[in-house]
User: Fold this.
Amino acid sequence: MKKLIKGLAQAAVYTGVNVQEGEEVYVISSVHAVELTHEVVRLCYERKAKRVVVRYRDDELTRLDYAHQTIDTLTHKPQYVYDERNYFARDDVKGCVISILCSDPNGLKDADGNKISAAHRADMKGLTPYYDKAMSHKVKWSIIAYPHPEWAKLMFPDLKPKDALKKLGKYIAKTTRVDNDNPAAAWEKHNAELKARSKKLKELNIKELHYVNKLGTDLIVGLPEGYVFGGGSDICGGVSFNANMPTEEVFSAPDCRNINGVVKASMPLCYGGKIIEGLSLTLKDGRITDYSADTNLDILKGIIETDEGSRSLGEVALVPYNSPISKLHTLFYETLFDENASCHFAIGEAYPTCIEGGKDMSRDELTKRGLNYSDVHVDFMVGTKDLNITATTRDGKTVPVFVDGNFTKEFE
Amino acid sequence: MKKLIKGLAQAAVYTGVNVQEGEEVYVISSVHAVELTHEVVRLCYERKAKRVVVRYRDDELTRLDYAHQTIDTLTHKPQYVYDERNYFARDDVKGCVISILCSDPNGLKDADGNKISAAHRADMKGLTPYYDKAMSHKVKWSIIAYPHPEWAKLMFPDLKPKDALKKLGKYIAKTTRVDNDNPAAAWEKHNAELKARSKKLKELNIKELHYVNKLGTDLIVGLPEGYVFGGGSDICGGVSFNANMPTEEVFSAPDCRNINGVVKASMPLCYGGKIIEGLSLTLKDGRITDYSADTNLDILKGIIETDEGSRSLGEVALVPYNSPISKLHTLFYETLFDENASCHFAIGEAYPTCIEGGKDMSRDELTKRGLNYSDVHVDFMVGTKDLNITATTRDGKTVPVFVDGNFTKEFE
Assistant:
C-alpha cells in the first residue's frame, strides 16, 4: 500500500491537477484514505501550494443522513456547504480540486431513491459556480480512487477482505499507470496517443455516428458542426491537467437535437450509492421519450426528470473493448473505471470544450450549436464485444469507426 | 473501547448538549475518533435531530498547514470556514455544537509560535458570532475527549502504546463519569453538588479572594457586585447542558479592574499544540504588567498581546486538590482535564453569565460591571496542595475558603 500511496499521490498532484506555486488546493477525501491524503497534501505543499484544504467524507455518516433527514432538510443545506467548493473556482482564487474516491458503491442501497435524486439535484444547483468552471476547464480538477474495504468486497466477493483490498489496490495502480517507475512519463505517452486519436476523429468531419449491437442498441447520434474530440489531458490557464485518472476515452458532445433510436446499457450504473441495472433509453429528435431499468428505476427517473437538459444526452465517448481496463474483465461498480472500459454516453450536460471556441461561448450560443445544458451529467456504459459504430461524414461518406467492439485500424 | 464509545456518546448527546427534536448538531471531531463519531451521530438522530454535520480534523494536516502556509494565509481564511460554525449559532437555527477532542497536545511543537498565535486570533475573530453566543449560553455546546495515540504516549511514556491508549481510555471514562451503569444519574447528582457549592459561594457575598501558596502566588482578586458562581450544567433556552465533560470546577468572573499581585502556574499549559511551562503573571489594578514563562514564551506573549482584554483575567475557578481528577496525580496536558484538577484563572474574556442578569446585558453594561472582554479565553492552572484562599466579604468579614489546597468544611 505504501507504494500505491506514493504513486497515487504523485499522479494526483503532478499529472492530475498539476499543482503550481501559489495555488489553493481543495482535497475531497475519505476517512478511509487518511494516509494517502497526508501524502497528497505533502506533495501539494512541496509544489509550493498556498493553501491546502481537506474535506473528509465518511460513508457511514452519509448513510445516517439519508436515513434520518427529511427530503426538505437534504435539499436545503446551509449556504456555506456550497461556498466551500465554489471558493476554489472563484475568479480571484487560483484554485484546483482533487477528489479521492474511496467509498462503498453500494453504500446507500437501503436509502430512499427520491431523497438521493433530490439531494443530488440540490447539490448540483448549489455547486453551479464550481461545475460551470469545471466543465469548461476554467478550474483544474482531478479524480483518483483509493481502495475501500466494502468496494473491494463488492468487486471480489470470493476473496478474503484483506486480499480483496490488495487486489483492488493492484488494479487501481495498474489502470492509473502508477505501477511503473515513471508514472509521469507513462501519462505523457498515453496523453499523446489519445490526442492523436482525437485529432483523426475531428478530421473525419463526422455528421452522425450509428451504433448497433446485439444487446439491442440501434442509435444514430448527430455531432454538432465544429465538434472537437477531447481525450487525455486538458488545458486550464496554460497548464495541463488530467481530470480523470484513469482515462481511456476520447469524447465529444452530441448535437442534442439529433439523436434517434434505442440505447441499452451494457453494464450496471452506480449512482449515489445505488446500482441501476438494465438501463434502456429511447430517443427521438434528441429527447428521451421512454426509459426503463431492471433495478432502481426511481433513481434513473430522478436523474432524467431533473430538468429540461436531463432528457437528452451530453457526451459521446469512445473506448475500445480491448482497452486496458476492459481487459481486466472486472466490473468496478465505479464510473471512473467502468466508463473507461466501455463506450459510453452521458445523460445531461455537455462539455463546452467539445466544440471549437466553446469555452468562451455564452450559454445561448452553445445551445444554438446543439450543446446540451443540465444540472446533471451521468455517464452510462454501452460498449460491447460486438458493437459496431459507423460514421456518416458531412461530405456523404460512410466510414466504419468501430468493428466488433474496437476501433478500426485507422483510429487505433 | 466499545463500552467507552457507547458511554462517551451518551454523555455528549444526552448530558452534554442534550439534543432536542429538530435541532441541528455540529460535531467537530478527528479522524482518530471515527467510531465514536458514528455513535454520537446515531444518537443525535435517535433524539430526532434535524441535521448532523461532522467536521473531521486531522493533526497531521494542521501540522503541514503551519509548516507551509504563510502567516498571511493562515490569518486570512476563506469566509466559509467561519460561516460553518457560526451557522449553528444563528438566531434562525436551533443549533448546538459537540467537540470531540482527540489530538496530540504536543502536535505543533515544531511550529512557529507567532503563526499559531496569529492564526488563533484570526480564528477567534472570525468565530465571534459563535463565541459570543457560546459564552452567554445562547447556544448549547459540549466538549468531550477521546484517546489519541500520541496523547496517550505523552501521558504514559513508560507504557506500551496499546496499554497507554487503554489507560487513557480508562481515565477518560472515570473522569467523565461514564464508567458506571447510569452515567446520566451520576451527572445529575454531580451537577446538584456543584450547584449547592456555587449557591453558598454567592451567599457569602465576597468582595475579594486572597490566594497564597509557597510556589509564589500572592494574589488578591476582586469579584464584581452581583457575581454568580457557575458550575455543572448550564441552561440554554430552558434546556440544561454540560459544556465541559469532565467538569469539577465552580467558577465566576473577577472584577477585571481589581486584581493585584503575583500568580504562578502550577501546571504546564497546553495551548495550540505547544506546552507553556513556568508561567508567571504580575497584575496591578487588573492589568498584567509583567509576564514570563520557561518555555514557549512567544506563545504566551501572543495570547497576552492579543487585545486590550487579554491583558487581564476573565475567570476565577475553584477546584479542590482532592478532586477526582487531581487524585489521579497525572498531568493530562489537556486543559479540559487539567483545569478540573486545579484552581485556575483564565486570561481574557469573562462569561457574561457570571453576573446576575449578565446574559442579557450589553457589552457596555458588562464592562461597567467589571467583566472583561477579549477575543481570547485561556485557562491556566494555579492550584497546589498548600494553596490557601481567604475571602473578604462585602460586610467586612474574613472567611477561609480554601485551606491546604481544599475547600473548608463549609463549602465541601
Notes: Residues 19 and 378 of chain B are 27 Å apart (CA to CA).
